[in-house]
Design goal:
Length: 360
């Protein structure tokens, strides 16, 4: 029985335990990837805290990169030895969402309780987000991986699996920002910084970062924000509108706080759209004056994983990185071993905007 080392969540809110788990070989269209890096995302922490529910025991981790070490007989477009980014975007390719280039909304359910991992004793172990990347190896569907060129480190590549594509995709795919438009990004964390990078790529005129922390606003400027607004003032939307001279064509909400969603319409221009990226805990609600949206022709768009098509979007993002036009290395704040994952999570919880990466 092939055992690998993994960080397992047995109880919501408790530290992970580092233990041996059983990983079966890839079948069908699956691939086995021996991981080199897996970044820690706030979604991992939200799941581990239990705010979205879910099955236990579980292995989280969904921003990974590594080398393909085995393939199932049906795996296409990827071969043993390929360096790949491993995402949580598992897509069947044939449901109505996949057929209309929306694989992030794939309608074919995945049962992580009956995936490729078990406890060392053969008991149920949930492969969270169809990935389970806080482990030495994963077995995932071939639809979830994208081969990488030389020249990008595994650590930098791992970030492309979630935070980078979510932020950039929310701007270029969901909001479809055009050159000259004005963008407000609320929250200058891991996703927010990438929404700012997306707005630069899209050719936005003003890119206004809004955050509670002055230090995060400094980082936001490094990533391309033209203006920075402190969210702790009475009416930060007034400062944002002063910077733009008008309201925003797109307001990206990248923090999972319902109260922030309540305020988001105040930043909008007529005809503008709110893009909902951050996910508050289950059961939380936001309130809007509905008539205003109709009267001003405004919209609200939910965007999951930046609406990316990974095999279309990740290669151009990698190329921009290789040209020096996309920051990835600058997003990494720390490198940790799998044994140190609980410390790395605490650091992510308390700390700065950037990503901690588990390096194998
Ligand atoms: Zn994530
Ligand atoms: Zn599908």
């Amino acid at each position: 029985m092939p055992l690998i080392k993994a960080a397992v969540c047995h109880t919501f809110g408790a530290p992970f335990t580092i233990e041996q788990i059983d990983l079966r070989a890839p079948t069908g269209e699956e691939v086995e990837v021996t991981l080199a890096a897996c970044a820690i995302c706030h979604s991992d922490i939200s799941y581990a805290d239990g705010i979205w529910g879910g099955s236990l025991p579980a292995v989280y981790g969904h921003e990974a990169a590594g080398t393909v070490t085995a393939t199932g007989p049906g795996a296409k477009g990827v071969a043993v030895g390929d360096r790949v980014v491993v995402t949580l975007i598992r897509s069947c390719g044939t449901c109505p969402s996949c057929a209309t280039a929306r694989p992030t909304n794939c309608e074919t359910p995945y049962d992580g309780d009956h995936g490729p991992i078990k406890t060392a004793q053969g008991g149920k172990l949930h492969q969270a987000m169809a990935c389970g990347g806080f482990a030495e190896k994963v077995v995932v569907d071939a639809s979830q991986v994208v081969p990488l060129p030389d020249g990008i480190s595994m650590e930098a590549a791992s970030l492309l699996a979630c935070g980078v594509i979510t932020g950039i995709g929310a701007v270029v795919n969901a909001a479809q920002v055009r050159p000259g438009q004005d963008v407000v990004v609320i929250g200058a964390g891991g996703v927010g910084l990438n929404a700012i990078q997306g707005a630069v790529i899209a050719g936005a005129r003003r890119i206004v970062a809004v955050d509670m922390e002055p230090s995060k606003l400094d980082v936001a400027r490094d990533f391309g924000a033209t203006d920075a607004v402190l969210a702790s003032t009475d009416a930060p939307w007034r400062d944002a509108k002063a910077a733009m001279g008008r309201g925003a064509d797109a307001v990206l909400v990248t923090v999972g706080v319902a109260g922030v969603y309540d305020q988001a319409p105040r930043y909008l221009a007529k005809g503008g759209n709110i893009v909902m990226v951050g996910m508050p805990g289950s059961g939380q609600h936001s309130t809007y004056e509905a008539a205003n949206f109709a009267a001003a022709g405004q919209g609200m768009i939910g965007s999951k994983m930046g609406d990316v098509v990974i095999k279309r979007d990740i290669p151009w993002m990698v190329d921009l990185y290789l040209q020096g036009r996309l920051k990835l290395d600058e997003l990494i704040s720390g490198r940790w071993s799998l044994d140190q994952i609980n410390d790395a999570i605490e650091d992510t919880r308390t700390g700065a905007a950037k990503r901690n990466v588990i390096v194998f």
